[in-house]
Amino acid sequence: MHCPFCRHSDSRVIDSRTSDDGLSIRRRRQCPECGGRFSTIETASLNVIKRSGVIEPFSREKVMSGVRKACQGRPVTEADLAVLAQAVEESVRQTGSSQIDTNEIGLAILGPLRDLDEVAYLRFASVYQAFDSLEDFESSISQLRADHTARVADTEA
């Protein structure tokens, strides 16, 4: 790590702490050459392999952007989207892989989105899973109804 003040090629770690989300480490460093102190944040890299083969860093904002379109006109707040994006990132990171394809991210979105808003889930799933016919919608709606009925029965029991 180069010192941002004198560009010396070494620094000493004074303090390390995990960040609030637990996915990164904040390190306080000191340059042995000039004595300047500075902070660094270290995160494990997570890359996304797109359908075209292009590899880019994972972005919570892109997850939120994609889900935001499905949630248009629904009672879903930006805070709800941020929580969903964090849950998706945590789920994807738990796979232990440093590279993940967009298909797996889409699958990771479906569960939390279904819990957040069933209409938004249906919109997202229809695009993501490329529904071709009314039967695809009917099947998905039937599954949602069955799951909803089971959840209501569990809470009443």
Automatic annotation (TrEMBL):
GO MF terms here are: ATP binding; DNA binding; zinc ion binding
Q: Which Pfam families match?
A: ATP-cone, Zn_ribbon_NrdR
Q: Where is the signal peptide?
A: none
* Described function: Negatively regulates transcription of bacterial ribonucleotide reductase nrd genes and operons by binding to NrdR-boxes.
Comp. bias intervals (Basic and acidic residues): 7-20
Q: Which cofactor does it need?
A: Zn(2+)
Species of origin: uncultured Microbacterium sp
Q: For this UniProt record, give its keywords in alphabetical order, as a comma-separated list.
A: ATP-binding, DNA-binding, Metal-binding, Nucleotide-binding, Repressor, Transcription, Transcription regulation, Zinc, Zinc-finger
The domain of life is: Bacteria
Q: Where is this region: Disordered?
A: 1-20
Report the record's Gene Ontology biological process terms: negative regulation of DNA-templated transcription
Describe cofactor binding as the record notes it. Binds 1 zinc ion.
Q: Which residues cross the membrane?
A: none
What name does the UniProt record give this protein?
Answer: Transcriptional repressor NrdR
- Upper classification of the organism: Bacteria, Bacillati, Actinomycetota, Actinomycetes, Micrococcales
The UniProt entry's sequence similarity note says: Belongs to the NrdR family.
Q: Which PANTHER family match?
A: TRANSCRIPTIONAL REPRESSOR NRDR (PTHR30455:SF2)
Zinc finger (unnamed) locations? 3-34
Under the heading InterPro entries, the entry gives:
ATP-cone_dom, NrdR-like_N, RNR_NrdR-like
